[in-house]
Structures are given as C-alpha cells and as structure tokens.
Amino acid sequence: MQPELIQIALTGLALLGSIGLFFGIGLALAAHKFAVERNPKVEEVMEALPQAQCGGCGYAGCEGYARAVVENPDVPPNLCFPGKEAVGAKVAQITGKEMAVVENAIARLRCDRQDGHVSHKHYYIGFDSCAAANIAYGGPSKCQYACIGMGDCMRACPFKAIEMRDGMPFIHADRCVGCGKCAKACPKQVIEVMPANAKVYVPCSSKGFGKEVKDVCEVGCIGCKMCVKACPAGAISVADNVVHIDTHKCLNYEGDCGMSCVAKCPRKILRPIKSEKTFDIFAEVKKKAAEEKADSAA
Fold first, then answer.
1. Where are the domains of the chain?
2. Among residues 51, 61, 58, which one has the least CA distance to residue 293?
3. pLDDT digit string (tens) for 86-141?
4. Residue 255 CB neighbour total at 10 angstroms
5. What is the pTM of this model?
6. DSSP letter assigned to residue 75
7. Domain 105-272 class?
8. How many helices (H) and strands (E) does the chain have?
9. Alpha helices, DSSP H, located in 178-281
10. Domain 40-95 - what CATH class?
11. Tens-digit pLDDT profile for residues 193-242
C-alpha cells in the first residue's frame, strides 16, 4: 500500500476515534447531570412487592406502584392484590402510612349461557379473540350480553386462575387475587370482581326484559325485582335492568334472611356461594419473579 494511502487511513481512524471519544465524554457528562436520584424507599417497596406485574393496583407494574406509593401521599399502601394484607403492612411500614383493611376479592362470571342453553345466531370465523368476535355483530350468541367464550380473560390473567371449560371461563378461587385484569379484558363485561366472602351472586348481565330474555336464555334474569322485595337487608338493587348486590349490606345484616332472595327468584339465577378456601399465592409469585431475574442475569 502506498504511504499516502496509509497516511489517509490512519488520519481517518484517528478522526473517528476522536469523534467517538468526544461523544462518549458528552454522554457520560449528560448521564451524570440528568441522572435521576433513586429514592431508597422505592427500592424497599420494590423488594416487598411480589413482582407479579399484574397491574391490578392501577399502575404500570410493580415499579410504577412503588414510586407512586412512596412519592404520592394519597396513594394507599394496600393496593397490591397478590400480596394482600402481609405486603400492605410492609409497604405501610416503609412509607409511614396508615394501613387500611385489606378485603380479599375474587372475580366471578356473570353469565350462565350453558345452563341457559343459549344458542348461536351465527358462527364466527376469524381471530380467536372475544374482542374480535364482538365486533362481528356483538358475538355469535343469541344473547347479546352473553360471554363469548374465546378466552381473552384467561390470557389476561397473570396468575393462571382461569381456564376454559366447554367454551366458558372457569375461575379457580384458590388462585384468583381479584386484580381485575380479566374483567378489563372482557368486551362483554360479564366478569365482576367482588368480595371473596360474598354470600350470593347473579350469573347474568342481561339488560333485557321478560320475553326478550326468555326467548334466548332459560335461566336469564327477567328483571322482575322479586329479589329486591325479598331482601330484608336492602342489599339488592337494579340498574339498567341488571341486578346488583351490596355485599357489605348483606354480610352486616344482623337478622337471618334465610337466603330469601335466592328462594324468591323465579328463574333461580340468584346463586348462593359455597364457602371457598382461598390461598395467598405471594410466595409462589415472588419465587417465579426471582427465577426469571436469575435466568435473565445468567
């Protein structure tokens, strides 16, 4: 190679090196100048959280909640659904906030199109998604309020608490933490998060009346309001022709209602809830997060 070419090549390399060094120093100075000081309490809260990243607290992952609960005095310490009371107490201690009562919650399906023998008005062919099927004339069921059954709720659940059985979601009470991700994913809004100790629920979300409901479902609520009249606790109300139960009024009623609302319902759509044992899955979620962190570091 001619000496002139070698000189040009060396000059070019030196120039590129100088440019790289200049930008490297600039980036280092910018990183130092604009570095965000990390609050040690945020780290403590992060360590206490299960790292489920479920979003049930209403924030973007565990770090989002950790920052909010430390920096915002209005954010309560008991919003971690997987951690429940144990984690809430730790977060309260770290942040110096008052610990409120943590009420266990469970998601329940407000649709029973299987017992109702709800038929199809058409057969949907397309993306295997409730949201997609809902765009096509409100889904395939004759009941426009019925569960579509393609598993959007199951895929949204970060705790694998939902499985599909015969085209309907089955919610495992022992794994559900009541984060509400499934309810948000459902285009028909037929999943409701309610207190785990509730006595009664209504597996129907139809807003139809009498004959309209009877024509498509054998058990759907017809809006007769007999349950409202029968409830001595005044815990049942109807809005948009959908029955709602105030669980706290029901549980705090001192007399013996004898499940009068269940007995009075002519469609037998008010269902008593059997006693269900729920488990704290905090340890399992925490273990999984630690394993994923170790795998990513390897």
1. 40-95, 105-272
2. 51
3. 899 999 999 999 887 778 899 999 999 999 999 999 888 889 999 999 998 899 99
4. 7
5. 0.74
6. S
7. alpha beta
8. 12, 8
9. 181-185, 210-214, 226-230, 247-252, 260-264
10. mainly alpha
11. 999 999 999 999 999 989 999 999 999 999 999 999 999 999 999 999 99
